């Protein structure tokens, strides 16, 4: 008898409050679209020294990233009308406390899409994962990220040499 590992259930698709904007798990099936997205955002992602690995991505690197099972983290693609335009992650640092990371195609900034994507993921975390806290670290000078966290209700909780830590207390968990 052959015993094979049972593939884990796919994380559920998450709607957002914006029409046509949906979160769907990023998998190896997205490798080509993910690489194309990285390739046109190298400067955007590395402007403040973050996302160095992504800014040097090769097709094989991108495929390898998505081939790895993210569990227990959640790894979502932000999709507008089916097109991959960004990524948002929930990182199981110390459940029910989580970390997060997010980025958006530079061409899609300025329309509330990252805010809506993060709100959908953190709402899911609160209601379905009983998450109580989300933390984010922001490199100094990343004013767009600071503004996004402010819109979502995060508060500054610690200052470090190069970055600021923000915290969101979740309700409804
Ligand atoms: C951080 C990042 C995701 C923020 O993207 P963003 O486009 O500024 O954020 P949003 O998509 O939520 O859009 C907000 C803008 O849309 C506007 N907006 C329009 N409709 C909106 C709505 N319904 N809800 C919220 N904002 C809305 C806001 O007023 C804001 O406008 P502004 O750009 O003139 O200030 C993006 O800059 C990025 O990918 N940066 C590089 C990677 C990075 O730094 N990641 C974070 C590491 S900590």
From TrEMBL:
Organism (species): Streptomyces flavofungini
Superkingdom as given in the UniProt entry: Bacteria
PANTHER family with a match to the protein in the record: GNAT FAMILY, PUTATIVE (AFU_ORTHOLOGUE AFUA_3G00765)-RELATED-RELATED
Protein name per the record: GNAT family N-acetyltransferase
Residues of the N-acetyltransferase domain: 21-173
Listed InterPro entries: Acyl_CoA_acyltransferase (IPR016181), GNAT_dom (IPR000182), N-acetyltransferase (IPR051531)
